[in-house]
Amino acid sequence: MARTVTTHRKILTTLLAWAVGLLIFFPIFWIIVLSFKSEGDAIKTPIQVLLSAWSFDNYATVQERSDYFKHFSNSVLISLGSTFLGILIAVPAAWSMAFVPSKRTRGILMWMLSTKMLPAVGVLYPIYIGFIRLGLLDTRLGLVLILMLINLPIIVWMLYTYFKEIPVEILEAARMDGARLREELLYVLTPMAIPGIASTILLNVILAWNEAFWTLNLTAAKAAPLTAFIASYSSPEGLFYAKLSAASVMAIAPILIMGWFSQKQLVRGLTFGAVK
Amino acid sequence: MKLRNALCAATAVSVMAAGAAHAENLVIATVNNGDMIRMQGLTDDFTAKTGHTVEWVTLEENVLRQRVTTDITTKGGAFDIMTIGMYETPIWGANGWLVPLDDLSDGYNVADILPAMAGGLSHDGTLFAAPFYGESSMIMYRTDLMAAAGLEMPTAPSWSFIAKAAREMTDRDNEINGICLRGKAGWGEGGAFITAMSNSFGARWFDEDWNAQFDTREWSDTLNFFVNMMGDAGPAGYATNGFNENLSLFQQGKCGMWIDATVAASFVTNPNDSLVADTVSFALAPDNGMGVRSNWLWAWALAIPAGTQKKMAAKQFIEWATSNGYIELVAEKEGWANVPPGARTSLYQNPNYTSVPFAQMTLDSILSADPNNSTVDPSPYVGIQFAAIPEFAGIATEVSQEFSAAYAGQQTVAEALAKAQDITNEAMEAAGYR
Question: Which of B60, B73, B274 lies nearest to residue A231, judging by beta carbons?
């Protein structure tokens, strides 16, 4: 029997949800505000900051000093490339784990996830040396490969969870109708799992877009994405808050807009299988 | 005839190839600060003079340090020039990771580099990095608040005077703190300040056998003096304040005194950003009557990693960026107050520059710092706010975290010093020094 919810409780919950939402959004709001202020105004008290003059000067300065579009295109290529390559590898892997499990499947899944617990800096040197030898240092291909590898466990796990929800009988029926493995994957499984695959793609694009350790350590001038663009405005000696804020807004705006329009899919993806 | 044509064609191809080989594209890793950004804006002058183009990789100081260390230790060759400091240069030079700068052109005038800077950027007498700008630390103070307190700042004050003045100038009701100092964890943040301060109290990091010295009275005196003074006259939450936080406080008129990098002088006297620009004056960093002042010495310098394939072009860039010609170029475009300070002797003989209010005090501070004799008692290391050994950055970061915890009141000074002693001795033992 459904629990009755009083109006009073509804209002309280709504207010609480708004309060939490605003609290989480506040740092982004403040970055946006500071990005329109001068460096001198940006360090004043919050009231003085809000009352001071607004201008687009920081955006103009940032664009003049750094090539935003080069970093942006690198971010787009790296995040989309690594996600799609990951999906190509993860779909067959998740299929086999979901529908043809062996006694080691669970162990393999746990082992894949455990690689995410390894501190990245622990493997920096071997990977850096490997990249030098393979000529992948400061290349977009190198970053596509490394981001695909570090996000692969999450992609496999998410797809595995979705595939487990699909009745195996449907795939068996397709096989009885003469579908071979390739057709089963392409024309039966994938269309049914499209919402799950879309959520996985969205989440992994966001993860790859925001990844800062590898993208800073394996790039120099050519393949640097927006994470390096932001890092170039941070400084422990000198006030660059306003310019740093403008650079941050420029870096997060595309992913923020994408997240806004796809929030339904994202929420669905993150909560899939949580409630049965 | 055919032979002559063939020879002509071959010669032309060779000349073109040689020309192409000369026009290099240099990748330079650097830090984000005002002087470096200014240099990036003037790179066209270098390209016009040499034909070489430049790509900049600008990173936050700590990120840059990690990034260039990874590249140079693996001979990655991602950068043709690196911006490094006085801490890394002698260590990397000794390891053979940097190209010696012993064949710079006569016109460059190496002898003009300030001796303190050249010494700190050399190993065994060989220069491995050219200083782009140098700095020490000094007192920046509010003349109006000092006068209101009925005090007069000596040119070379003692710590007891500074503590007294700080307490007199403090006005909590009007949010004025007598003194703002770094307390933030990190070897280059609060760690640098307290190490330089400890030198003037007769403390040192290591004795001559590399034993940690945090169990000595001198270190206890240093930390207790600092904590008491900051508790009475420092800003709330000073345990997390670094350069930027104090700069912000000072510019808003919330500090009576600030002891920090000499480069801050141009920020606090800039009326566009500072509310107190007209009432700032300068003095040498304090001492404690033991013959050593509490100022540090630092330089951001340009070095060539041994892994680069473009050594000649890289040397040309370094000669351009650290030359007197570059200083004149900046002066012409942005005024003398904005030229990179603390690198060349001739700058301080130039009447155009000596009229800048903080020029003489910056020079005096730099000249009074000696990395080879930074402590009262003899020590086995070179460096003032650091010990130039590879292990120092890691150890000092941990030690400064313990100190910051004491500043925040999470532990006592005695507990912080005891932990610092253990951390340092353990690390030095593991590294084979003891």
Answer: B60
A232 close to B (CB below 8 A): yes
A144 and A121 in one domain? yes
Distance between CA atoms of A203 and A207, rounded to whole angstroms?
6
| Residue A141: both structure tokens together | 């291909």
Give B208→chain A minimum CA distance, Å: 33
Question: For residue B19, is it within any domain?
Answer: no
Query: pLDDT for A210-264, tens place per residue?
Result: 999 999 999 999 999 999 999 999 887 777 889 999 999 999 999 989 888 888 7
Chain B window 42-81: which residues touch A at a Cβ cutoff of 8 Å?
55-63, 66-67, 70-71, 73-79
- Could you tell me the end-to-end alpha-carbon distance of chain B, in angstroms, rounded to an integer? 78
Compute CA distances A254 → A26, A189, A250, B298, whole Å. Answer: 19, 31, 8, 40
Give the pLDDT confidence score for residue B332 in this predicted structure: 95
As for how many domains chain A has, the answer is 2
Distance between CA B139 and CA B293 in Å, rounded?
A: 12
Q: Within an 8 Å CB–CB cutoff, is residue A220 touching chain B? A: yes
In the numeric block, the tokens 């409780």 are attached to: A9
CB contact under 8 Å between B70 and A129, yes or no, is: no
| Same domain assignment for residues B35 and B179 | no
Domain extent, residue B276, equals 137-296+378-430
Q: Are residues A112 and A161 in the same domain?
A: yes
3-class SS at B302?
Answer: strand
Say how far apart CA A89 and CA A96 lie, in whole Å. Answer: 12
- The kind and range of the H/E element at B118 are helix B115-120
Q: What is the DSSP letter of B106?
A: G
Whether B372 is covered by a domain: the verdict is: no
DSSP state of B237: T
Do residues B222 and B399 touch, judged by C-beta distance below 8 A? no
Task: Say what the pTM is.
Answer: 0.85
d(CA B159, CA B294): 9
Where helices occur in A135-193 by DSSP H, the ranges are 140-165, 168-176, 181-183, 190-192
Give the confidence band of A273 by pLDDT, cuts at 50, 70, 90.
low
**Is residue B255 within a helix (H) or strand (E), and if so which, with residue range?**
strand B255-261
- Report ipTM (2 d.p.): 0.82
Classified as helix, coil or strand, A220 is coil
Chain B touched by A60 (CB under 8 Å): no
B33 and chain A: CB distance < 8 Å anywhere?
yes
Per-residue pLDDT tens for A67-105?
999 999 999 999 999 999 999 999 999 999 999 999 999
Q: Report how many domains make up chain B.
A: 2
Q: What residues of chain B score a pLDDT lower than 70?
A: 1-21
Where residue B217 sits, what CATH number does that domain have?
A: 3.40.190.10
In a domain, A42, yes or no: yes
pLDDT tens digit sequence for B190-218:
999 999 999 999 999 999 999 999 999 99
